[in-house]
Amino acid sequence: MTESGNPSQPANVNEYTASHIQVLEGHEAVRRRPGMYIGSTGERGLHQLVYEVVTYAVDEHLAGHADTIDVTITADGGVRVADNGRGLPVEVEKPTDTPAIERELTELSFGSKPHAGYGVSGGLSGLGLCVVNALSSRLTVEVHRDGHRWTQEYEKGTPITPLTRHEETGEHGTSIAFLPDADIFETTWYSFATLSERLQELAFLNGGLAISLTDERPERPVRYHHSDGLRAYVAHLNPYPPSLVHSPAIAFESENQDATIFVQVAMQWNTWSTGGFRSFANSTRTHEGGAHEQGFRTALTDLVNDYARRQRQLSTHDEDITAEAIEEGLTTVVSVKLAHPVFEGSTRTRLSNPEAGAYVQEVVREHLTDWLDNHPDEAAAIIRHILNAST
Smallest Cα–Cα separation from 180: which of 136, 138, 223? Predict the structure, then answer.
């Protein structure tokens, strides 16, 4: 990233030389333009700091090394995120003789995480911990790894203590505590409700992962653990059993042969709401949808029309049921996990991987068709509901 000299002075092209170029690296670049990395310096960006640290812990879970994440809003207004994963690496790396953990917290290493081992990764593509560190007035990292406890402290992205080895331990995991920089953020007050909603969402999306949230301002502990995954998520979104067209929710999942795309779907029709669609890529909410949403909708529209005609609930002379009628009252959650996600825009709100859309189509056509064929009574009720919505 570059910045020209004093913007208040008129530019003189004859005096513009290399000495006028300022190269910003690491925490300096983040602190100069925080919005480029976390979206804003308001409440959204403030909470994004927590999500980035939590995402590192979720990645440990997805890699098979963590099943618990504990998030605490501390009494001083900071946040502490602890997991029982492998622990950030502490070995010294050549040629810089810098501990790997320090590089992770100070270097903008675009691409996959420097310490690797992640087939799927969310967050800012390996930048998350560095960005959080740069935008914190104080950050402390504690790691249990390689038979010892290790600690290091930072101020505004700069280490103020060396990585220090402490007593022996048989535990493993990482704990990161940080205080957002009041000179950067418009507010430093964390919303318990906002964090709680997102953490519960992550627990739904990552079945078997236990996530707790504690507020020390006063203490308000909650714990989320959903072994039923997306089916439990849809049940949470559809809280009125008498309005359900069918129960339980339809749920299925599949992974492609190359193990590069994992798809999970849960869906349920109801009569009390217009329905809603929530999609995720690597546990990140894709508010603007993208290939995975389009793949689902294309497959759903085609197969519902095909099934209705096969069951003679729709004649060969009837027009196709529209996508709008099919989705009336339908609550859907689609989650894809990809080795190489491609997002449009810096806020990561639209997934553009065509292979994700194609695979979601394939999975929905196969599994939803099987479900309809094997649940004829529920399937008939769904088609009747859809036909009523189309009139």
Answer: 136
pLDDT tens, residue by residue, 263-297: 999 999 999 988 899 999 999 899 899 999 999 99
Question: What does the radius of gyration of the chain's CA atoms come to, in whole angstroms?
Answer: 24
- Beta-bridge partner residues of 142: 151, 175
Tell me how far apart the alpha carbons of residues 236 and 200 are, in angstroms, rounded to a whole number. 10
What token pair was written down for 55? 């995402």
- What is residue 152's three-state secondary structure? strand
Residue with the two structure tokens 């029709």: 269
Q: Return the structure tokens found at 93.
A: 């790396």
Tokens coding 32: 């100069």
Give CATH for domain 39-224: 3.30.565.10
Q: Tell me the residue type at 33.
A: R
| Residue whose pair of structure tokens reads 């203490």 in the numeric block | 219
Is the entire prediction scored with pTM above 0.85?
no
Helix segments in 150-290, DSSP class H? 192-205, 229-237
pLDDT tens digit sequence for 144-203:
999 999 999 999 999 999 999 999 999 999 999 999 999 999 999 999 999 999 999 999
Question: Which helix (H) or strand (E) is 275 found in, with range?
Answer: strand 275-281
Tokens, residue 209: 């992962």
CATH 3.30.230.10 residue ranges for the chain: 229-390
Tell which residue, 248, 275, 273, has the closest CA to residue 333: 275
Q: Which of 86, 91, 88, 113 is nearest to 176 (CA)?
A: 88
Phi, psi (degrees; rounded to nearest 5) at 180: -60, 145
Give the residue range(s) of CATH 3.30.565.10 domains in the chain. Answer: 39-224
Distance CA 375, CA 251 (A): 13
Phi, psi of 36 (to 5 degrees): -65, -20
Q: Which fold has domain 229-390?
A: Ribosomal Protein S5; domain 2 (3.30.230)
Q: What distance in Å separates the CA atoms of residue 356 and residue 163, rounded to the nearest whole number?
A: 41
